[in-house]
């Protein structure tokens, strides 16, 4: 499990983009930005999955990582431009 502080930093890093701009991170660079050690990479993946399930982030495999400007086949995550506020929107 990630600590609360680490989870907060993930959200901070993902949310740190100008409005109207999507900033994508591969997991490697997201972990680097949040300073999560490689030993906790699986925890980061689990947290990203949970965020995605709640609609707090988007993720897909393959694409362009804005954090370091490279293409990747691995998981990319980003914060949607209009974060879903509240719970139970029920559209899923
Ligand atoms: Zn990257």
How would you explain this protein's 3D organization?
- The structure is a single chain.
- With 92 residues, this protein is of the alpha+beta class.
- The protein has one domain: Arc Repressor Mutant, subunit A (Orthogonal Bundle).
- It has 3 helices and 3 strands; from the N terminus they run H-E-H-H-E-E.
- Helix 1 packs across helix 2 (27-34).
- The chain starts with a helix and ends in a 14-residue tail after the last strand.
- The relative contact order is 0.23.
- It binds zinc ion.
List the keywords.
92 residues, alpha+beta, Arc Repressor Mutant, subunit A, three-stranded antiparallel β-sheet, 3 helices, binds zinc ion
Cα(first) to Cα(last) distance is 26 Å
Domain count: the total is 1
Helices, by number, come to: 3
Instruction: Enumerate the distinct ligands.
Output: zinc ion
Chain-averaged pLDDT: 88
Structural class: alpha+beta
Number of strands: 3
| CATH third-tier fold name | Arc Repressor Mutant, subunit A
Portion of residues in helices?
A: 25-40%
Largest sheet: 3 strands, antiparallel
Order the strands across the largest sheet as they lie in space: 1-3-2
Are there runs of 5+ residues with pLDDT below 50, and where? Answer: none
Amount of beta strand:
15-25%
H/E topology pattern = HEHHEE
CATH class: Mainly Alpha
CATH architecture: Orthogonal Bundle
Q: How would you sum up this structure in a few lines?
A:
This protein is α+β, with helices and mostly antiparallel strands and 92 residues long.
